[in-house]
C-alpha cells in the first residue's frame, strides 16, 4: 500500500485528536486502578460515590517492579529462543508444537508455573499484589512509550507510521511515530502485542484461582470456567501468532502509548477482572447455567476462529480448496473481497464471535454486580470503534468495490441489528 507519510491533519481526528491523546493517557491508567480497587471491595459497585480509593501504601510493593521487569525479561528471553531451529531438529516435537513460538512461550511459562507451585510458591499472593503490579506496568508503559517516541526521530522516513506523524508531540506520543520499531532484530511491537500482556493475563487469572483455593480449599466452577475460557482465547491467539501480522495494529498503527499501554497494562489487569472479582465474591453455578455458558463460549469461539481462519486462508492462498469456491468481488488493488461464507454474513463476523465469548466470560460472575460486565461493555465500544476505523481504511483502499461489498453485506457486526 502506498500512502503519504507527510504530516496528515486528517489522522489527527482519530481518538478525539489532541484532546483525546492528552486525556486518555491520564484517564485510562486511573481507570485500571479504580476498577481493581472496586473489584476487591466488598460492595464492588462501579456506581458507588465517592469512589473507593486505596490507601497509598496499597499502591506500592518493592516486589512489584522486580516481578514486572523480571516478567518482561523472561518473556523477551523466550521470544529470542531459537524455537524454529529446535522444531526442525525435533520432528515429533514439531508435530506437537507446530506453528508459533508464542505458543511455546505459553507452554514454557506453564511448566515454570507448575514447578513454582511444586516448590511451594504462594501464587495466590498475586491477588494482594494486583494494585502495585498494575502501577508498575503503567509506569513501564509510560517509559517505553517515551523511549519509542524519542528513538523514532532516528528512524528512517519509510519506517514511520501514517497516523502518528502530525508534528503534535502529545498526539504523536499517543499514536506512535514509528510503525514497527526494533532493537536489532527484536521487533518491539510484535513482541508486546501478544507475549507479556496476554500470557501475563492468564498467569494473573491462575493466581486468582490459587487465592480462591487458599481461601476456600477448592476452586469454584465459576473460577474454573473463567480461567478455562480465557486460557483457550490466549492459547488460540498465541497458536495463531502470525495472524497478528495482518492486523490493523501491526500494519497501520504506530507503536506509541495507545498500543504499549493496551498491551502491557490494560489487557492483563482489566481482562482479569472477572477472576479477581470471584476471589472476593464467590458465585455458585447450576449445572444447567454452566452448560449454557459453555455452549455460548463454544459458539462464540467457533464463529471467531472459523471466520478469522477463512479470511487468513483466503489472503494467504485464494486458490486453496477451502476458500476457492467462495464468491468474491474484485477491487482496483488486485485483491479480492469475500462476499460469501462468514464474510457474507456480516462485515466483521470475527468481532461477533469475540463479543459472544466476552459475554460468556462475564456470566459466571452472576447478575448482582455490573463490574464483571465491564469487559463486555468496553469491548463492544472498542470493536464498534475499531470496525469504524477499519471501514474508513477499507473504503480508502478499495473505493467503489468496498461500497458494493457494503451493499451486498449490509450489517457490520450483528446480523439484522447493526
Ligand atoms: P480483522 O481481522 O477483522 O481484519 C480487517 C481486515 O480484513 C480489513 O482491513 C481487510 O484487510 C480485510 N477484510 C475485511 N473484509 C474482508 C472481506 N470481505 N474479504 C477479505 N478481506 C477482508 O481485523 P482486526 O485486527 O480488528 O481483528 C483481528 C481479530 O482480533 C478479531 O477476531 C478481533 O475480534 C480480535 N481483536 C481482539 C481484541 C482484544 O482486545 N481481545 C482487540 C482487537 C481485535 P485487507 O483487505 O487489507 O486484507
TrEMBL record:
<dbReference type="Pfam" id="PF01222">
    <property type="entry name" value="ERG4_ERG24"/>
</dbReference>
<dbReference type="GO" id="GO:0005789">
    <property type="term" value="C:endoplasmic reticulum membrane"/>
</dbReference>
<dbReference type="GO" id="GO:0050613">
    <property type="term" value="F:Delta14-sterol reductase activity"/>
</dbReference>
<dbReference type="InterPro" id="IPR018083">
    <property type="entry name" value="Sterol_reductase_CS"/>
</dbReference>
<dbReference type="GO" id="GO:0006695">
    <property type="term" value="P:cholesterol biosynthetic process"/>
</dbReference>
<keyword id="KW-0443">Lipid metabolism</keyword>
<feature type="transmembrane region" description="Helical">
    <location>
        <begin position="218"/>
        <end position="235"/>
    </location>
</feature>
<feature type="transmembrane region" description="Helical">
    <location>
        <begin position="93"/>
        <end position="119"/>
    </location>
</feature>
<keyword id="KW-0152">Cholesterol biosynthesis</keyword>
<keyword id="KW-0812">Transmembrane</keyword>
<keyword id="KW-0753">Steroid metabolism</keyword>
<feature type="transmembrane region" description="Helical">
    <location>
        <begin position="358"/>
        <end position="384"/>
    </location>
</feature>
<keyword id="KW-0153">Cholesterol metabolism</keyword>
<protein>
    <recommendedName>
        <fullName>Delta(14)-sterol reductase TM7SF2</fullName>
        <ecNumber>1.3.1.70</ecNumber>
    </recommendedName>
</protein>
<feature type="transmembrane region" description="Helical">
    <location>
        <begin position="255"/>
        <end position="273"/>
    </location>
</feature>
<keyword id="KW-0560">Oxidoreductase</keyword>
<keyword id="KW-1207">Sterol metabolism</keyword>
<keyword id="KW-0256">Endoplasmic reticulum</keyword>
<feature type="transmembrane region" description="Helical">
    <location>
        <begin position="63"/>
        <end position="81"/>
    </location>
</feature>
<keyword id="KW-0752">Steroid biosynthesis</keyword>
<keyword id="KW-1133">Transmembrane helix</keyword>
<keyword id="KW-0756">Sterol biosynthesis</keyword>
<feature type="transmembrane region" description="Helical">
    <location>
        <begin position="125"/>
        <end position="150"/>
    </location>
</feature>
<comment type="pathway">
    <text>Steroid biosynthesis; cholesterol biosynthesis.</text>
</comment>
<feature type="transmembrane region" description="Helical">
    <location>
        <begin position="21"/>
        <end position="43"/>
    </location>
</feature>
<feature type="transmembrane region" description="Helical">
    <location>
        <begin position="285"/>
        <end position="304"/>
    </location>
</feature>
<dbReference type="InterPro" id="IPR001171">
    <property type="entry name" value="ERG24_DHCR-like"/>
</dbReference>
<comment type="function">
    <text>Catalyzes the reduction of the C14-unsaturated bond of lanosterol, as part of the metabolic pathway leading to cholesterol biosynthesis.</text>
</comment>
<keyword id="KW-0472">Membrane</keyword>
<comment type="similarity">
    <text>Belongs to the ERG4/ERG24 family.</text>
</comment>
<dbReference type="GO" id="GO:0005637">
    <property type="term" value="C:nuclear inner membrane"/>
</dbReference>
<keyword id="KW-0444">Lipid biosynthesis</keyword>
Amino acid at each position: 500500500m502506498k500512502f503519504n507519510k507527510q504530516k496528515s491533519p486528517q489522522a489527527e481526528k482519530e481518538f478525539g485528536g489532541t484532546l483525546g491523546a492528552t486525556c486518555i493517557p491520564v484517564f485510562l491508567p486511573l481507570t485500571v486502578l479504580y476498577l481493581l480497587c472496586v473489584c476487591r471491595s466488598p460492595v464492588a459497585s462501579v456506581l458507588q460515590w465517592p469512589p473507593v480509593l486505596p490507601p497509598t501504601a496499597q499502591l506500592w510493593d518493592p516486589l512489584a517492579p522486580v516481578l514486572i521487569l523480571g516478567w518482561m525479561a523472561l518473556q523477551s528471553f523466550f521470544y529470542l529462543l531459537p524455537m524454529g531451529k529446535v522444531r526442525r531438529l525435533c520432528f515429533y516435537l514439531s508435530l506437537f508444537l507446530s506453528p508459533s513460538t508464542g505458543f511455546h512461550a505459553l507452554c514454557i511459562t506453564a511448566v515454570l508455573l507448575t514447578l513454582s507451585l511444586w516448590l511451594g510458591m504462594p501464587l495466590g499472593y498475586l491477588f494482594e499484589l494486583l494494585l502495585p503490579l498494575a502501577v508498575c506496568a503503567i509506569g513501564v508503559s509510560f517509559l517505553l512509550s517515551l523511549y519509542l517516541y524519542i528513538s523514532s526521530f532516528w528512524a528512517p522516513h519509510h519506517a514511520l507510521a501514517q497516523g502518528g506523524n502530525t508534528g503534535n508531540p502529545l498526539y504523536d506520543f499517543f499514536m506512535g511515530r514509528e510503525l514497527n520499531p526494533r532493537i536489532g532484530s527484536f521487533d518491539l511491537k510484535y513482541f508486546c502485542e501478544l507475549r507479556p500482556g496476554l500470557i501475563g493475563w492468564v498467569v494473573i487469572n491462575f493466581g486468582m484461582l490459587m487465592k480462591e483455593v487458599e481461601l476456600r480449599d477448592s476452586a469454584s466452577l465459576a473460577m474454573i470456567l473463567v480461567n478455562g475460557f480465557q486460557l483457550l482465547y490466549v492459547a488460540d491467539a498465541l497458536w495463531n501468532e502470525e495472524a497478528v501480522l495482518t492486523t490493523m495494529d501491526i500494519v497501520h498503527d504506530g507503536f506509541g502509548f495507545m498500543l504499549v499501554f493496551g498491551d502491557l497494562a490494560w489487557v492483563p489487569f482489566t481482562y482479569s477482572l472477572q477472576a479477581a472479582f470471584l476471589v472476593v465474591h464467590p458465585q455458585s453455578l447450576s449445572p444447567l447455567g454452566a452448560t449454557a455458558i459453555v455452549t455460548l463460549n463454544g459458539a462464540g469461539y467457533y464463529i471467531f476462529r472459523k471466520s478469522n481462519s477463512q479470511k487468513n486462508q483466503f489472503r494467504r492462498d485464494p486458490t486453496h480448496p477451502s476458500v476457492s469456491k467462495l464468491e468474491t468481488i474484485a477491487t482496483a488493488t488486485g485483491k479480492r473481497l469475500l462476499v460469501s461464507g462468514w464474510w457474507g454474513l456480516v462485515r466483521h463476523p470475527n468481532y461477533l464471535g469475540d463479543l459472544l465469548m466476552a459475554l460468556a466470560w462475564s456470566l459466571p460472575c452472576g447478575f448482582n454486580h455490573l463490574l464483571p460486565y465491564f469487559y463486555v461493555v468496553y469491548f463492544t465500544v472498542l470493536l464498534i470503534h475499531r470496525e469504524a476505523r477499519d471501514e474508513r481504511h477499507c473504503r480508502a483502499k478499495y473505493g467503489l468495490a468496498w461500497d458494493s461489498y457494503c451493499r451486498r453485506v449490509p450489517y457490520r457486526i450483528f446480523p439484522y441489528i447493526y
